[in-house]
Protein backbone atom coordinates (compact mmCIF):
# COMPACT_ATOMS: atom_id res chain seq x y z
CA UNK A 1 0.00 0.00 0.00
CA UNK A 2 1.61 3.25 -1.14
CA UNK A 3 0.65 6.50 0.56
CA UNK A 4 0.73 9.70 -1.49
CA UNK A 5 1.14 12.94 0.49
CA UNK A 6 0.88 16.38 -1.03
CA UNK A 7 0.87 19.93 0.25
CA UNK A 8 -2.36 21.80 -0.38
CA UNK A 9 -1.30 25.37 0.46
CA UNK A 10 -4.69 26.95 -0.26
CA UNK A 11 -6.17 24.71 2.48
CA UNK A 12 -3.08 25.09 4.71
CA UNK A 13 -2.70 21.36 5.10
CA UNK A 14 -1.01 18.24 3.85
CA UNK A 15 -3.33 15.53 2.53
CA UNK A 16 -2.61 11.82 2.39
CA UNK A 17 -4.30 9.37 0.08
CA UNK A 18 -3.80 5.69 -0.57
CA UNK A 19 -2.42 5.29 -4.08
CA UNK A 20 -5.26 4.85 -6.56
CA UNK A 21 -7.98 6.11 -4.19
CA UNK A 22 -9.58 9.55 -4.30
CA UNK A 23 -10.67 9.70 -0.64
CA UNK A 24 -8.47 11.68 1.76
CA UNK A 25 -7.08 9.23 4.31
CA UNK A 26 -5.49 11.84 6.59
CA UNK A 27 -4.58 15.50 6.97
CA UNK A 28 -2.03 17.62 8.80
CA UNK A 29 -3.10 21.24 9.27
CA UNK A 30 -0.42 23.94 9.51
CA UNK A 31 0.36 27.64 9.64
CA UNK A 32 3.46 28.78 7.75
CA UNK A 33 5.51 31.95 8.11
CA UNK A 34 8.73 32.99 6.42
CA UNK A 35 10.81 31.22 9.08
CA UNK A 36 8.67 28.44 10.53
CA UNK A 37 5.82 26.04 10.05
CA UNK A 38 3.53 25.23 12.98
CA UNK A 39 1.73 21.90 12.80
CA UNK A 40 -1.64 22.38 14.49
CA UNK A 41 -3.68 19.22 14.02
CA UNK A 42 -3.29 15.81 12.45
CA UNK A 43 -6.18 13.48 11.77
CA UNK A 44 -6.41 10.08 10.10
CA UNK A 45 -9.79 8.67 9.07
CA UNK A 46 -10.71 5.74 11.34
CA UNK A 47 -10.72 3.22 8.50
CA UNK A 48 -7.08 4.11 7.72
CA UNK A 49 -5.67 4.11 11.26
CA UNK A 50 -2.67 1.89 11.90
CA UNK A 51 -1.58 1.90 8.26
CA UNK A 52 1.23 4.47 8.45
CA UNK A 53 -0.78 7.43 7.19
CA UNK A 54 0.22 9.71 10.09
CA UNK A 55 3.88 8.80 9.71
CA UNK A 56 3.74 9.48 5.97
CA UNK A 57 2.19 12.89 6.66
CA UNK A 58 4.83 13.75 9.26
CA UNK A 59 7.80 12.54 7.25
CA UNK A 60 6.74 14.35 4.06
CA UNK A 61 5.85 17.60 5.84
CA UNK A 62 9.09 17.61 7.84
CA UNK A 63 11.23 16.74 4.81
CA UNK A 64 9.64 19.66 2.95
CA UNK A 65 10.21 21.98 5.93
CA UNK A 66 13.88 20.96 5.93
CA UNK A 67 14.17 21.57 2.18
CA UNK A 68 12.62 25.04 2.61
CA UNK A 69 14.96 25.81 5.55
CA UNK A 70 12.00 26.25 7.92
CA UNK A 71 11.93 25.61 11.66
CA UNK A 72 9.10 23.46 13.02
CA UNK A 73 6.74 24.23 15.91
CA UNK A 74 4.82 21.02 16.66
CA UNK A 75 1.76 22.21 18.61
CA UNK A 76 -0.05 19.09 17.43
CA UNK A 77 0.53 16.24 19.93
CA UNK A 78 0.97 13.73 17.09
CA UNK A 79 3.77 15.74 15.44
CA UNK A 80 5.44 16.45 18.80
CA UNK A 81 5.43 12.75 19.69
CA UNK A 82 6.55 11.68 16.23
CA UNK A 83 9.53 14.05 16.28
CA UNK A 84 10.43 12.87 19.81
CA UNK A 85 10.61 9.28 18.48
CA UNK A 86 12.63 10.28 15.39
CA UNK A 87 15.79 12.10 16.49
CA UNK A 88 16.85 12.75 12.90
CA UNK A 89 14.13 15.45 12.78
CA UNK A 90 14.78 17.11 16.15
CA UNK A 91 17.16 19.65 14.62
CA UNK A 92 14.14 21.22 12.90
CA UNK A 93 12.48 22.24 16.17
CA UNK A 94 11.89 25.95 16.60
CA UNK A 95 13.80 27.55 19.47
CA UNK A 96 12.51 30.89 20.72
CA UNK A 97 15.13 33.63 20.62
CA UNK A 98 13.31 35.72 23.22
CA UNK A 99 15.17 36.39 26.46
CA UNK A 100 11.98 37.53 28.22
CA UNK A 101 10.95 35.50 31.26
CA UNK A 102 8.23 35.82 33.89
- Secondary structure: helix percent: 10-25%
Shape: elongated
Low-pLDDT residue intervals, each spanning 5 or more residues = none
Cα Rg:
14 Å
Please tally the β strands and state the result.
Answer: 5
How would you characterize the overall build of this protein?
This protein is of the alpha+beta class and about 100 residues long. It is built from two helices and five strands; from the N terminus they run ββββαβα. It has helices at about 55-65, 75-85; strands at about 5-10, 15-20, 25-30, 35-45, 70-75. The protein is elongated and about 50 Å long. The termini are far apart. The mean pLDDT is about 95.
Task: Report a brief summary of the structure.
With 102 residues, this protein is of the alpha+beta class. The protein has 2 helices and 5 strands.
Secondary structure blueprint with pairings:
Layout: E1 3-8, E2 13-18, E3 26-32, E4 36-44, H1 53-67, E5 71-74, H2 77-85
Parallel strand pairs: 4-5
Antiparallel strand pairs: 1-2, 2-3, 3-4
Q: What descriptors fit this protein?
A:
24% helix, 102 residues, alpha+beta
Amino acid sequence: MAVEVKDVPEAKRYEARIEGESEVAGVADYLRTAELVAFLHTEVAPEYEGRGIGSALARTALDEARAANLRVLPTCPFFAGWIARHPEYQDLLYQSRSKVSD
